[in-house]
Amino acid sequence: MKNILLVVFSAAILISCKEENKRATMSLEYPETQKVDTIDTYFGTEVPDPYRWLEDDLSDETAAWVKAQNEVTFGFLDQIPYRKEINNRLTELWNYEKVSAPFIEGDYTYYYKNDGLQDHYVVYRNKEGSEEVFLDPNTFSKDGTTSLDNLSFSKSGKLAAYSISEGGSDWRKVIVIDAETKEQIGDTLVDLKFTGIAWKGEEGFYYSTYEKPKGSQLSAMTDQHRLFYHKLGTKQSEDQVIFGEIDSQKARYIWGGVSEDERFLYISRSVSTSGNELYLMDLEKGDNKIVPVITGFENSTSVLDNDGSKLFIQTNLNAPNEKIVTVDASNPLSDNWEEFIPETENVLSPSTGSGYLFARYMVDAVSKVLQYNFDGTLIREIELPGVGTAGGFGGKKDAETMYYSFSNYNTPGSIYTYDVETGTSEVYWKPEIDFNADEFESNQVFYTSKDGTKIPMIITHKKGLDLNGKNPTILYGYGGFNVSMRPGFSIVTAVWLEMGGVYAVPNIRGGGEYGRKWHDAGTKLDKQNVFDDFIAAAEYLIDKKYTSSDYLAVRGGSNGGLLVGAVVNQRPDLFKVGIPQVGVMDMLRYHTFTAGAGWAYDYGTANDNEEMFQYLKGYSPLHNIREGQNYPALMVTTADHDDRVVPAHSFKYAAELQAKETGEAPKLIRIDVGAGHGAGMPVSKIVDLHTDIFGFVLYNMGFDELPQ
Question: What does the alpha-carbon distance between residue 633 and residue 27 come to, in Å, rounded to a whole number?
């Protein structure tokens, strides 16, 4: 926005001594943020939006504001005495070789590997014992901000297409290469968003995108998502639209996938992040006829595999915890479905490989895996290495070996081979990491939320922890979009644990841990359940003396950033520190940015009706900051190129916090420049971010030295 005079005062950091904790604390003078007279009216209610101008990511004024805020934030962070020590330990612990499970394409075995501190994993391949680099994303840009997103091979393995993200953006470029020579074939495809790469023979592939809006990358996506077919050797402008003509219910997400035998094209169409329609095209017929499998957006359905014309379909139609059905592709409508693996009390997440079907279940957020024949016969329950999260169990039908990963909060992830005939597992790769998992323990507890609902939570800490209420604790949550918080190892969490920290993750409503009902119980007019569940988790930790309000930090990202902003507003007394990361903070306008309108299943929108408007306004983090309220220390984190949850959410929220005189504790915003929502972030930026988060948390809890 032009013609705004932004007066930026240089940061003045004043040191004052507080006798109550005998340590230096800081009084900050924040940059002055210009206010404008923007007012929106919803159902007769006027809502001021004084920082609307910060939504313009291309303006010089916004850039100046970002620079001024970062000067204040990093001026504060630079004073933390043990910040370098944290950074050194994160760097040291991160520096170990990491390897993925291998996969075979054509004559080569491919795998991803990172030698320790590389910003991005490198794709290697091996043929007859000779290893070579296939793709090295570390060479894509000088500063490490261009990352590899997706890599897809044609069935023969002779051709490959890969997508890249620049600066963390959701917009992608796709490059096609001859897999043998690694030389590029044809032009680079540009401006693809929310897409896969699905090959059809050697001739071309399917992909999805919108028409890119002109101007700001943060503009709302008004175009229909479409599925295209790109024929090799032709220009992108000539690509054929396969599916996605504009209609009354605009599709925001369309995805195309080709079956392993290349007989069918499967097409998913969604108007929001939950629920989809499913269609198929029999590619053998060559008539391009698209046949509906299920229409309407009330349920989620996908094709798991096929055996000739017999389709194996995963669905939550009349099965909130998911089930598998079969049907013939000649008449695939749901009236003809036959139950194959019925719904159980646990949530199903199936996969296939080596001629078998693997039914992975979540039992109170931890893994249980059953192996089936394709005739429905249960072969065995797979014995896993422990209690935690198992991933993988997927591959081609003729794969001789299956692989899976296993980890939990205090066990670094390892890769195992699995013999599908005998049911035995062997370690394929185990990390050599400078972390002694035997010194720590993870325990699952169940606590009661405000309405009496039982909520599971996993608490991880050093063995022999003294329950004295003085342990620095991070309570992490998400609570939305059917996302399940499952136990898994994280280097940054390991460093927190080494420093004597407690790490607690509750499986609050809005997630997918107990199926669709659990998800729906945290959406729209029931969103408050999510906040109540999280607040109750904090109260449990305090009641059981794991920590106290003086040593409790709350953290979450994206929808979890919304969670942090909401609970800090509702219970500022409960937390010492809050870290809302890339959060959805303006609940009245979230749907007007990029693809935000697709989140309406979880949130509803302020334009739906007056009840929904009032409900959103009642918890929106931006709109519920109270003048003069003593808030905990807050460090908002975002990135200037985030086109998923646009940085304006965090910008406006931070400006409002600073303007409302919300107590003496710092209210800072840390803005990564040249980064996005998080995917593909280089290791160097990840280490720096978590250095600052841990330093900010501990410093504001009163630690002059790192706890042990």
Answer: 12
Instruction: Give per-residue pLDDT as tens, 550-562.
Output: 999 999 999 999 9
CA 159 to CA 181: how far, in whole Å? Answer: 10
Q: Domain check: are 506 and 398 in the same one?
A: no
Calpha distance 81→91 (Å, rounded): 18
Q: Is residue 97 part of a domain?
A: no
Query: What is the torsional sign of CA 540, 542, 543, 545?
Result: positive
**Alpha-carbon separation of residue 503 from 353, 471, 554, 577, 595 (angstroms):** 35, 10, 10, 14, 32
Both 417 and 446 in one domain: the answer is no
Rounded to 10 degrees, the C-alpha dihedral 695/699/704/708 comes to: -60
Q: If we measure between CA atoms, which residue out of 134, 110, 123 comes closest to residue 403?
A: 110
Selecting among 225, 649, 677, 690, the annotated active-site residue is 677
Statement to judge: residues 72 and 87 lie in one domain: yes
Which residue among 399, 432, 465 closes a domain?
432
d(CA 210, CA 358): 35
3 state SS of 236: helix
Q: How far apart are CA 47 and CA 54, in angstroms?
A: 17
Q: Whose structure tokens read 């306004």?
A: 617
Do 487 and 602 sit in the same domain of this protein? yes
Give dist(CA 569, CA 484) in Å, integer: 25
Q: Which residues, in sequence order, are CB contacts of 576 under 8 Å at separation 6+?
A: 549, 550, 551, 552, 553, 632, 633, 700, 701
Q: Which residues contact 321 (CB under 8 A, 6 or more apart)?
A: 343, 344, 345, 346, 347, 348, 514, 515, 516
Amino acid at 605: T
Task: Supply the pLDDT for residue 445.
Answer: 97
User: Is 677 designated active site?
Assistant: yes
CA gap 295, 289 in Å, rounded: 16
CA angle 645, 647, 651 (to 5 degrees): 135
* Domain annotation covers residue 106: no
Cα 706 to the chain's mean position, in Å? Answer: 30
In 105-120, which positions are buried (b, 16+ CB within 10 angstroms) versus exposed (e)? bbebebbbbbeeebbb
Name the pTM for this structure.
0.90
pLDDT in tens, 392-416: 999 999 998 999 999 988 888 999 9
User: What residue numbers bound the domain in which 359 lies?
Assistant: 344-432
Question: Pick from 375, 399, 432: which residue ends a domain?
Answer: 432
Q: What is the pLDDT of residues 460-481, one digit of tens each?
A: 999 999 999 999 999 999 999 9
Q: 162: which 2 tokens?
A: 């890969």
Neighbours of 11 (CB within 10 A): 18
Q: Are residues 603 and 529 in the same domain?
A: yes
413 and 516 within one domain? no
Q: Give the chain's domain count.
A: 2
What whole-number distance in Å separates Cα of residue 603 and Cα of residue 607? 12
Q: State whether 505 and 368 are in the same domain.
A: no
Higher pLDDT, 272 or 657: 657
Residue from 365, 319, 364 nearest 344 by CA = 319
Sign of CA pseudo-dihedral 134, 139, 141, 147 = positive
Instruction: Give me the helix-helix angle, 491-498 and 683-700, nearest 10°.
Output: 30
Contacts made by residues 306-312, CB under 8 angstroms, sequence distance 24+: 306/259, 306/261, 306/263, 306/264, 307/374, 311/264, 311/280, 312/340, 312/352, 312/357, 312/374
Active-site residue identified among 558, 591, 623, 650: 558
Cβ proximity of 213 and 233 under 8 Å: no
Residue 142 contacts by C-beta under 8 Å, 6 or more apart in sequence? none
Asked if the structure places residue 59 within a domain, the reply is yes
